[in-house]
Amino acid sequence: MCGIFGFSSYAEEAKTDLAALLNELASESSVRGTDACGIAYHHKNRIVIDKSPKAAYAVTFKPPKEVSVIIGHTRHATHGLAKKNYNNHPFYGKAGETKFAFTHNGVLYNMDELRMQYHLPKSKIETDSYIAVQLIEQQKLLDENSLRFMAETVSGSFSFALLNDMSNIYLIKGDNPISILHFPKEKLFVYASTEEILWKAVINTKLFDTLKLGHYEEIPLEEGQILKITPRGELSYSKFDYDEYAAYGLCRWYDYGWGFTTPTQSQSSKDDYLSMLKQAALMEGYDSSEIDALVAEGFSSDEIEDYIYGCYSY
Known about the structure:
The protein is α+β, with helices and mostly antiparallel strands.
């Protein structure tokens, strides 16, 4: 599991300290991964990526003051060593003439099969998430259709966030959580992997006063939806075919238990993911035996994550 976060301000003059908001989001998101962190933004006709093999709470991001749209990531490494910074998010991509940055929360299991099936070029990047970047690049166009193709082609757990060189953010939701708030007065959209992370980050900024007054709205995003947020504050939705069974090959692990093996998800992959959940639980003060109990009860990976991060009452 990893953390994704970011914001898009469509105010002519920001009423919020965006640098403070950015670093609060990054720091709070480190609960979902401390192996690396990074951000991406569009500035002077370039996609700028600033990433480091360090925990977000040990890093202070300092983007230019005029930057008002940023995506970010905190990493729990599963494929590819974090000390090799090219394995860390965000990743750079180019589809046709469009440049973009890409982040992913989750695990993709069919990267080797996809590389062979679509004759994708070899890369020094070992991270499973990078296969999604290559699928988009192969379409030679970045739009809802190419994102739909990518989301319907990968197998695994995911929520994706992508920033293009027009400062549009695309949020793509599979089975992994993502929470979005809109502050109309400040003309600001903010997102993070979980509601708890998002609220903790916002509470530590001047947006807390707005929260207390109730001057905000939650932006819905369901499984199988792509949300586009423009730098003008416009929202548009599109859909992709999302089958929870297809996400893991024939079925998800919790339909048949951890002993069930699908063609696209090996036993070692499932053991790795269970280990990740247990590590996250320890960071939050839970014993790993509690995770075993939830698995035995048939809880989904999404529900277990909610439980770990305080969003689920068990």
